[in-house]
């Protein structure tokens, strides 16, 4: 299997997705938009993974590659490629599928509980996860559930945390791919987003390595399920 991922900033890579893919014998390639790298032909990949980033999906003037990225995501989904979007990646998928991305009522940073919806509990993919689990969050925007998609998870601060579309597409607002070192990078490089007194903002001192270790198996369960479809 050929996994290709789209990376928007140097510090948001595959995380725990990489060891999962290598263990399963995947080849891995990437497009780094921050380095102006080209996109591959859609028929040259089997999986598409779209990572996070600090930009808004509508900032086409500052990030002109967003236009061709959205077009590529649309072609990959139409071609039936297995597609996973995380945070910004999920927002991009939602937009491509006809959803809307807007400012969330709360900025959500740190570990917070995610709860499966009734549809999520019945989902062939999300049904393999616990009904409620801790995940890492770092976002200020949110997506609407696209037409035809299934809403699969929520949190207290953000109603739309995950969705599936068809058999092969998953969108996750939260991060279960982050490892401890990825979380350290976020707190080190994006500390300006830690607004004092935010209801759903937790600083680095409130995070624990064990929480990251506990959520990575949930990522693997989703990937296993998508891989088997």
Q: Characterize the largest beta sheet: strand count, sense, and whether it forms a barrel.
A: 9 strands, mixed
Number of strands: 9
In one word, what is the shape? Answer: globular
Mean pLDDT across the residues is 96
Radius of gyration from the alpha-carbon trace, in angstroms:
16 Å
| Series of H and E elements | EHEEHEHEHEEEEHH
Which strand order spans the largest sheet, edge to edge or round the barrel?
Answer: 2-1-3-4-9-8-7-5-6
What is the terminal separation in angstroms? 13 Å
- Counting structural domains, the number is 1
Task: Give the CATH topology.
Answer: Rossmann fold
Explain what the structure shows:
The chain has six helices and nine strands. With 229 residues, the chain is an alpha/beta fold. The mean pLDDT is 96. The chain has one domain (2-227): 3-Layer(aba) Sandwich (Rossmann fold), CATH 3.40.50. Helix 2 packs across helix 3. 28% of the residues lie in helices and 28% in strands.
């Amino acid at each position: 299997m050929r996994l290709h991922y789209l990376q928007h900033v140097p510090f948001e890579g595959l995380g725990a997705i990489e060891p999962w893919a290598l263990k399963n014998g995947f080849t891995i390639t990437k497009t780094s938009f921050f380095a102006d790298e080209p996109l591959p032909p859609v028929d040259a990949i089997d999986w598409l993974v779209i990572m996070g980033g600090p930009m808004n999906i509508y900032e086409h003037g500052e990030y002109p590659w967003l236009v061709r990225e959205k077009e590529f995501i649309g072609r990959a989904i139409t071609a039936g490629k297995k597609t996973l979007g995380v945070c910004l990646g999920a927002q991009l998928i939602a937009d491509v599928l006809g959803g809307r991305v807007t400012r969330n009522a709360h900025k959500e940073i740190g570990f917070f509980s995610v709860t499966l919806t009734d549809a999520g509990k019945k989902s062939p993919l999300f049904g393999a996860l616990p009904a409620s689990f801790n995940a890492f969050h770092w976002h200020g925007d949110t997506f609407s559930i696209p037409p035809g998609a299934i809403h699969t998870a929520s949190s207290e601060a953000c109603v739309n945390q995950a969705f599936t579309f068809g058999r092969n597409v998953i969108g996750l607002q939260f991060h279960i791919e982050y490892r401890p070192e990825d979380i350290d990078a976020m707190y080190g490089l994006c500390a300006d987003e830690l607004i004092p007194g935010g209801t759903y903002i937790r600083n680095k001192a409130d995070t624990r390595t064990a929480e990251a270790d506990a959520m990575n198996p949930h990522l693997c369960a989703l990937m296993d399920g998508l891989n088997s479809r």
